[in-house]
């Protein structure tokens, strides 16, 4: 039997091997921890979008007869001090708890990405000025800016989101700037410039596309930090105001703790911790801080095929 006869089945088997499905590729790239985090966050997002359909009661409906009711068939997680259903408030609270961080991250990206790309493209004095501005804003604590904004404009979600958006611009833009500077010195950028492509096309269609995993991963981590910051401000009564359903507002129910009822506070606090932890894990996996098993397997397959052919 010739060498060609030996290698032919191997080559045919390799060619006929089915390609991994997109869902399997995503699961392999994220790993078990990243997949679990993504599934949990997807469930929370579904709860927020379908809150009117999934919540068993009106989140603000009061019934003094059900004050601090224990978990039961009528109230799966019990009721708070004025008889409001805890599960319904958690479901509706996911809307405000996720809306604020989403606005913070979106505004920060819309402002920070263009500045970071301009600094990376032009370099020199432009890069130095933008970097100093980022350092100056980064040195100011986000919570302090939010407290100052609330002191000037009054308590509410809008002043807190505006202040945190400013504080989070350098948090996201510095990562984008560093990654874009590495891409700026790549040969393909010079080749595109020689072909006559402009600044916008190169930076948006090529540089930004290549650093998208880093941007998305950092945005996920920033989302978790913003969620925690806004929950802290709501806990202090500076952001979302009672009786609006919000996880931070629910955690501030110290009266329940003093009377020995821990579930009205523990349930929203646990959701905040799980969301922040899931966003951190997912952000790390997306940005590539950990090796991707799928890529490792794909690198080993050619070596194994070559060994079989020999």
UniProtKB/TrEMBL annotation:
PROSITE patterns: ABC_TM1
Gene3D superfamilies referenced in this protein's UniProt entry, alphabetically: MetI-like
Pfam families per UniProt: BPD_transp_1, OppC_N
Localization annotation: Cell membrane
Primary location group: membrane
Domain ABC transmembrane type-1 residue range list: 94-283
UniProt KW keywords: Cell membrane, Membrane, Transmembrane, Transmembrane helix, Transport
Listed transmembrane segments: 29-55, 98-121, 133-153, 159-176, 215-242, 262-288
Membrane topology recorded in Swiss-Prot or TrEMBL: Multi-pass membrane protein
Family classification: Belongs to the binding-protein-dependent transport system permease family.
Entries under PANTHER family matching the protein: D,D-DIPEPTIDE TRANSPORT SYSTEM PERMEASE PROTEIN DDPC-RELATED, OLIGOPEPTIDE TRANSPORT SYSTEM PERMEASE PROTEIN APPC
Name of the protein described by the UniProt record: ABC transporter permease
Record organism: Streptacidiphilus alkalitolerans
Biological classification of the source: Bacteria, Bacillati, Actinomycetota, Actinomycetes, Kitasatosporales
